[in-house]
Design brief:
It is built from 13 helices and 12 strands. The chain has about 325 residues and is α/β, with parallel strands linked by helices. Helix 4 links the parallel strand 6 and strand 7.
Length: about 325
C-alpha cells in the first residue's frame, strides 16, 4: 500500500479501545532501543542537539545512514538497522538519528523543516559523526527522509556516497496526495490514555503492521500532555504544511540524476511517474516492490528491507582487483 492509498484509508480509521483487554493476547508495552542498537548519544550541530542511535561505530566498513520520514523517529528503522548490522557486525556501521523536530532531538527552530535546513542538518550531522570520512556511504531515506537524502547526495556535500535508497516515496503520488494529508492527520486520535494504547492503535489501524516494530518505535512519537495523564504527538505535522511541496517537487529528477547507485523500494508500482518509468526501463535505478507492506515498509518488513539494502550495497561496492604486472 503506497502513501496515496494510506491517506485514502484515513476516512475509515477508527480509534480502537484505549485500554488493553484481558483477552487480546498481545503485549503492548514498549521495547527498549538497546535491543536494536549498541549506543544512544547526543550530537550537537548548529542549533540542534540530535539524538542518535547507532551500531558498529568503531568499524571501518560501509556506513549506512538512515533518515526517517515526517512524524517518525530513528526507531522506525530499529529492526531494519539490527538486520543490516548483523549481516556483518565486524564491518558495518548503522546510524539512525532523530532529525530536527522529531523523537528525542531538541534545540532551537525545531519547527523549521524546510528542505535546505534539513539537508544542512543531514550533512552537518554526518560531518560531526565522521569527520574527514573516507569510508563508503549508503544513504537510506523513508518518505520525506528520502527527499532529504536525495538532495544531500545531489549536492555532493557528503563524500564517498556509493548508494542512495528511497523507501516508498515517489514525486507523483506525493504531490497528488498533498491536499489529502490534512484529512489523514486530522483522522488520527490527538491524544492517548497511555503509550500502550498508542501502540495498539498503530497496529489496529494498520498504520504499522509489525507488532514488534510498533512496540519499539511508537513511544518515541509521543510526549506527555501538561496534565501528565495523557499523551500526544511529539511532532505536530500540520504546522509543517508550508514545507510539503518543496520536499517533493522535482524529486524524481533529483533522484534519477543523483551521482551514485540508486534503489527505490516501494509498496506498490501504481504511482511511478513518467520520469521514473522511463528511467527504470533504461536501467538507471534498481526497483524493488513489496506489495504486502504498508507505507512504513521498513517497519512492516524489516528483514526483507534489510536484505535488499545489503545486497544493493554489495552489488555496487567498489571492487578491489589486484593488478598483476607482466
Amino acid at each position: 500500500m503506497d502513501l496515496r492509498q494510506t491517506i485514502f484509508k484515513a476516512q475509515h480509521i477508527k480509534l480502537p479501545p484505549l485500554e488493553q483487554s484481558e483477552t487480546d493476547g498481545k503485549e503492548w508495552s514498549p521495547l527498549p532501543w538497546s535491543l536494536y542498537f549498541e549506543t544512544q548519544r547526543t550530537v550537537s550541530v548548529s542549533d540542534t542537539n540530535f539524538n542518535i542511535y547507532a551500531s558498529g561505530t568503531d568499524n571501518s566498513g560501509p556506513i549506512f545512514v538512515l533518515h526517517h520520514g515526517a512524524g517518525h523517529s530513528g526507531l522506525t528503522f530499529g529492526l531494519t538497522s539490527k538486520h543490516i548490522y548483523n549481516s556483518d557486525p565486524q564491518s558495518y556501521t548503522v546510524v539512525a538519528p532523530d532529525f530536527r523536530g522529531h523523537g528525542a532531538t531538541t534545540g532551537n527552530n525545531q519547527n523549521d523543516l524546510s528542505l535546505d535546513r534539513m539537508v544542512d542538518d543531514l550533512v552537518g550531522l554526518f560531518d560531526a559523526l565522521f569527520p574527514n570520512n573516507r569510508r563508503e556511504v549508503v544513504l537510506v531515506g523513508h518518505s520525506m527522509g528520502g527527499a532529504i537524502a536525495a538532495h544531500a547526495v545531489s549536492s555532493k556535500r557528503i563524500q564517498n556516497v556509493r548508494g542512495l535508497v528511497l523507501i516508498d516515496i515517489v514525486e507523483g503520488s506525493a504531490m497528488d496526495s498533498l491536499p489529502s494529508i490534512p484529512m489523514f492527520i486530522n483522522a488520527r486520535p490527538q491524544t492517548f490514555e497511555s503509550v500502550e494504547s498508542a501502540i495498539r492503535w498503530h497496529i489496529e489501524s494498520n498504520s504499522i503492521q509489525n507488532h514488534e516494530s510498533a512496540r519499539l518505535s511508537v513511544p518515541s512519537l509521543l510526549v506527555p500532555i501538561n496534565d501528565g495523564k495523557r499523551m500526544t504527538w511529539r511532532t505536530q505535522l500540520l504546522p509543517t504544511e508550508k514545507y510539503w511541496k518543496e520536499w517533493y517537487s522535482g524529486l524524481s529528477k533529483t533522484f534519477v540524476l543523483a551521482p551514485t547507485a540508486k534503489l527505490l523500494v516501494l509498496a506498490g508500482t501504481d504511482r511511478l511517474d513518467k520520469e521514473l518509468l522511463i528511467a527504470q526501463m533504461q536501467g538507471k535505478f534498481q526497483l524493488e516492490v513489496l506489495p504486502l507492506a504498508g507505507h512504513t515498509v521498513q517497519e512492516d518488513l524489516p528483514d526483507r528491507v534489510g536484505d535488499i539494502v545489503v545486497l544493493f550495497w554489495k552489488r555496487n561496492r567498489p571492487l578491489n582487483i589486484p593488478v598483476t604486472r607482466l
